[in-house]
Amino acid sequence: MGKIKFILIVILALILSPLSFYKIYAQPKIGGFLQLDKRFYINDNALPFDDFYNRFRFETSISPNDKLYLFSSVDFRFYDVARVDELNDLENINQLFPTNISLWEAYVSVYGFLFDDLDLKIGKQRISWGTADKLNQTDNLNSKDFSDIYNFTEKIPSWAVKLSYYLGDYNLTAVWLPNFEPVLLPRNGTSLFLGDALASFKDSVVLPASKLSSSMFAFKLSSNLAGWDYSFSYFNGYDDIPILTSLIYNSNPGSSNPGKAELSFPKIQVIGADFSTEISGIGFWGEGALIIPDEVVTYISAIGMNYQTVALDDKPYFKFTLGSDYTFPGGYYLNFQWMHGFFTERGSALNDYFFARLEKVLFNDQLKIALGGVLEVDKWDNVNENYGYGFFPELTYQGIDNLEIAVGTFLVGGKPATLLGSWNDANQAYLRVKVIF
Amino acid sequence: MLNEILQSPPLPDATKVPSGERVYRILFVVVFLILTTVANAQTGKEILAKVDSVMNAPKDMTAIEKMTLIDKGGSQKDRNTKIYQKGSEWRLVRFLTPADVRGVSFLRLASDRLYLYLPAFRKVRRIASSVKNENFMGTDFSYEDMSQSSYSNDYTAKLLKQENNQYVLELKPKPNADVSYEKLILYIDKSNYVYRKIEYYNNGKQFKVLTVDNIEKIDNYWFGKKMEMRNLKNDHRTTLILTEIKFDQGLPDKIFTERNLKRPE
């Protein structure tokens, strides 16, 4: 009995010791959100992807002293659609109620590291670059999160060491990313972003080797001149969208498997620049990325013949986003952006996307109406056959603190060869409830 | 003095006064009236300059601000912020509660350099000043109200009257002034030049009113610790109560930077 009591006391002491530490040295803070997101397909011939998920984010932070800040967040995703293919799956709770848990962010910030004007941030973190609204061409440090097609601008925090040096109006940032992390695609929805040419092939994806020479790094210098905020950046790493490097057709014509495909991630350098300013009350911003890829060659083997073709040449290409916003009398907010080159596009195959969003709040900010739209043009010399479009109306109730209830739709269409046209069967309506704590 | 002139011994008979002297007296009265009018206009300008001077007297300030938003039906929402102010231009407002705006921070470096930090996106976003006449984070204060630091720069002042130990000034925008109000009426305490009430007009109608209470002298500066902005159109109001007010702490410039904007409280 004495032994049990001793163990209990030790356990209690271990549990309480961090609390005592917090009590004496710092006050921990908790926060996060619960987002319940109910989606419905609108089309009868809806796509098979079913990665609709809800989220629970739990955040903790603590600042033991004025130079140190620790932050971590855990992301729970719980999915709407059961993953049941066979009877045995009905015996498995994980198949019926799929869930996923991941450490979303976990980092330490050190303010005044080594000297007063130098900050260090180390750990899994989101590093957001660029001045555009979500359509950032220079924001290449974190991998893309395409798991929810409606939120295709999301990013996943990456493990990084970030040093920021401040000198007057100048800020120099250096980032080292030891590991490469690829894009996250929607479950059963890869074709939405990468096309369906390889859908029937047995594929394999080759990640860059996990060694020091494969690590990625970036620099950014930002400042302000005469009311213009600007920055120049450089990134040396990998494109997180894979590209075909090998295709071996099955020599047996009777086989249901047409062959094997291998994909890898192109090495790229990105020279970026951005600005933001205002002229006569109108906000303007822009960012451009000159992308210099290493050449990628695809090896093809078919019917005993081997040959190779250039999948991506080493010719630099330029992607950009220009935007503007204005709040009209009466509280009508208009935001317009022109994106040249979608996130998945590269080389000479860059298309134009024009995004617009009009917002108006009503009833003392209790209700927000937002009308969003996008027009895609792939070939300006034949627009009639090369256009896509999207319409994203949303109504949000925000009358109670920490609560948002939104209903809306994600409607896209266009010519089948366009990106938005290929998403035609992904049209959705949704109800989203978000509680922040 | 005007009274003395007007109350000078009545002329026994106007016809007996030599015409030259009569003209001289009338001319004197007219000149005096003109000078008095001019003097009044200057007084309005001077009063406003003193209001600005009182408002901007501290070199810097920090305070905790509790905002309560109250709708027509009486339901309330609270927001707590920490504010940092340096000179008349630089201001940083950091939201502490509620959870859905916690960590959101607003930085003003000039009338056309406004920044908002959105912690959910880990991003600092520049805001176009066209937002200035919109409500600041759901309150009845506009961005312009929150960042107004000098009325003299933007408005001309006319002294309308003096009543209840207050100066009543009418302010109208100067040509090309970048303000969104057509007219302001300021009620200014004569004893300390703190404004006690501001009426806001657009399209010829008053649509908002600000009242300032709990005026105290803190560290030699007169300061209103409680403010209420009422929207007359929808009867919605926002009260601001300031606590932990500290002046002249020698706030460093680096508080008013993007680096600090992103830094958690």
Write up this protein:
With 437 residues, chain A is mainly beta. Chain A has three domains: 24-106, no CATH class; 112-324, no CATH class; 351-437. Chain A has helices spanning 2-25, 93-96, 190-194, 419-422; strands at residues 29-41, 53-65, 68-79, 99-111, 118-125, 143-144, 155-156, 158-167, 170-177, 202-206, 216-225, 228-238, 243-249, 259-264, 267-279, 282-293, 296-302, 305-312, 317-328, 332-340, 352-362, 367-377, 387-397, 403-414, 428-436. In chain A, the strands form three sheets. Chain A has an 18-stranded antiparallel beta barrel. In chain A, strands 10-14-13-17-18 form a five-stranded mixed β-sheet, with no helix packed on it. In chain A, strands 6-7 form a two-stranded antiparallel ribbon. In chain A, a hairpin with a 4-residue loop joins strand 21 (352-362) and strand 22. Chain A is globular. The two termini of chain A are 43 Å apart. Chain B is of the alpha+beta class and 265 residues long. Chain B has a single domain, classed as Lipoprotein localisation LolA/LolB/LppX (outer membrane lipoprotein receptor (LolB), chain A, Clam). Helix content of chain B is 21%, strand content 44%. Chain B has five helices and 13 strands. Chain B has helices spanning 2-6, 19-55, 143-147, 151-154, 258-261, and strands at 60-70, 76-86, 90-97, 105-110, 113-118, 123-127, 155-163, 166-173, 183-189, 195-202, 205-218, 221-231, 236-247. Chain B has a 13-stranded antiparallel β-sheet with strand order 6-5-4-3-2-1-13-12-11-10-9-8-7. In chain B, strand 11 (205-218) and strand 12 (221-231) form a beta hairpin. The longest helix of chain B is centred in the N-terminal third of the chain and has 37 residues, at 19-55. Chain B is globular and about 80 Å long. The model of chain B is unreliable at 1-15 (pLDDT under 50). The chains are: A mainly beta (437), B alpha+beta (265).
